[in-house]
Amino acid sequence: MANRLQQTISLQTKISPQQIQMIKLLELPTMLLEERIKREIEENIVLEEDVDAKGESEDAPEKISVEEYIGKEDDTPTYKARINNFSKDDKQRPVYISEGRSLGEYLVEQLRFRSLSDVEMVVAVYIVGSIDDDGYLRRDLNSLSDDLAFTRGLDISAEEIERILGIVQELEPAGIGARTLQEGLLLQMQRQQLDSRHKRLAYTIISSHFEAFAKKHYERLMARLDIGEDDFREAIEYIRSLSPKPGNLYSDGGADSTPYITPDFLLDNSDGEMRLMMNTSGIPEVRISRRYREMMRDMVAPDGTIKAEDREAVQFVKSKIDSAKWFISAIKQRHDTLMRTMQTILDFQRDYFQDGDKSKLKPMILKDIADRTDLDVSTISRVVNSKYIQTHFGIILLKSLFSEGMQTTSGEEVSSHEIKTILAECIENENKRHPLTDENLMDILNDKGYRIARRTVAKYREMLDIPVARMRKQI
After folding, report:
1. Does one domain contain both 242 and 285?
2. How many domains is the chain partitioned into structurally?
3. Distant-in-sequence, close-in-space partners of 419: CB < 8 Å, separation ≥ 6
4. Helices (runs of H) and strands (runs of E) counted in the chain
5. For 38-70, what is each residue's pLDDT tens digit?
6. Whole-structure pTM over 0.85, yes or no?
């Protein structure tokens, strides 16, 4: 076959490295932004932290050339990440939190008081390291055996690991090292004296009828065990007094299941006038090092010529300065985009931000904010993702402010937040012996004027982390 040349025309969209950098910075919350800036300072030798922070921000030039680095000092912009709207007396001081022993350290400390051989101690410590924060060992014993063979060179069977696991399960808190919820509850019961009828009944329910108990087939259980409602209720109350997460029974200032949230925005509403600010506490202020600017001037002659031996060094420093300028510009653009978007959200939901009443939240989607800011929907999505605002009524996840709209029978548009609030209230006030089904909830909402389908009720119920009616049933 003969080769033949063919000309085609195609349209392609390419994203520059600077645009990619801007997109990534836009997605970062405050804590990760601080880490990102510090990492950039470490990687780029011409960037340094602006301790004095005396310079003013300037826009990065559109074109970059060597001449820019040999003019006045002011030609090289500095960037101030912090807004100077606080006095020195308002400077936030760090709060130092002291940590105690973690759960793993506490368990290993208890193991030292056991008469274990060196091999048993290695296996026991490895088991402890595989226990999660809830106190469960969710790994298969055969997998642990393989890991010990590869990482420790120990040929330990799954049966031997199970024996040593039994030693770990004897440690405090009760239930630690359980592999299932059923095992965790039984371990806690075995530590207590089953000295009453309802406790012995509870042990029988969990050990022999756990599946029926988990599915809340209470009538079937009472018939199978031939017991009355009062005895059954006491047994259930005893089971509920046990912890479904044994790891939570230990608290000594170590690992905390509640994460610390650093808000990205601060909203001040102390005197009735809302003022929005970026939370820049801890974010380094960066600038281009004066040392490298002077180095460029020394290596470039007044007529713009560069010595042959300095050409490579000039090119290297120039590339680093270019990169630094793009990074500083991207940080500034991120700040402007975030403030612009958050101010628009604040204006859109002003009634809600006055007192935090969720019933005042208007239906709002990403496109509503995109249209008002003249930004793309994807940009708004990146701005609100994993970002928080601190208000006088709490710290709010920006993403939670967005909701779909729904029309009532009167034609009024309401937010899905309002529907969820009513749904939660209905379930909270229901008869627990006969909980409301999704169809019952649909009828209640329809009677209130909200046109909603049963599958939508089920979706909102799941979003509220509320189980189905059968699982909410109580005796």
Report:
1. no
2. 3
3. 406, 445, 450, 452, 460
4. 20, 8
5. 888 888 888 888 776 544 444 444 444 444 544
6. no
